[in-house]
Amino acid sequence: MVPAFDVLGKKSFFLGEMGNGAKMKLVVNMIMGSMMNAFSEGLCLADKSGLSPQTLLDVLDLGAIANPMFKMKGPSMLQGSYNPAFPLKHQQKDMRLALSLGDENAVSMPVAAASNEAFKKARSLGLGDLDFSVVHEVLKGTGGSG
């Protein structure tokens, strides 16, 4: 089956028992959601403290935390454009399920919990169908007006 799976993605992993693939997806999406919240906070902090958010993107792209998500999402976030690649409502659902998985395994996840609250706030403002990066609007205090 590996050759068939290799056509579908960049790499295949055998994760053991049934259900582990879903768990891995939740863990990855929990990390992604937490990163998006921290990234959004950083963009807001740069802007409010008189730094150029665009320069922050340039600096991040050169450093140890450079990553495709920041490079891809950052420019559109600065423009207030949130065409959905991964809708916020799906990101928040995965955050909720990951937190539940954490509870089942006695893993405290305060960063993920705080991030989930920001996604929940965005959903309550009617932003659930936009890209999950729209959480940036909530963190900068304009939720829904942009």
TrEMBL record:
The beginning of the lineage is: Eukaryota, Viridiplantae, Streptophyta, Embryophyta, Tracheophyta
Got a GO cellular component term for this one? cytosol
One GO molecular-function annotation for this sequence?
NAD binding
One Pfam family of this chain: NAD_binding_11
Q: What is this protein called?
A: 3-hydroxyisobutyrate dehydrogenase-like NAD-binding domain-containing protein
- Where the record annotates domain 3-hydroxyisobutyrate dehydrogenase-like NAD-binding, the positions are 19-137
Query: Which family would the database say this protein is a member of?
Result: Belongs to the HIBADH-related family. NP60 subfamily.
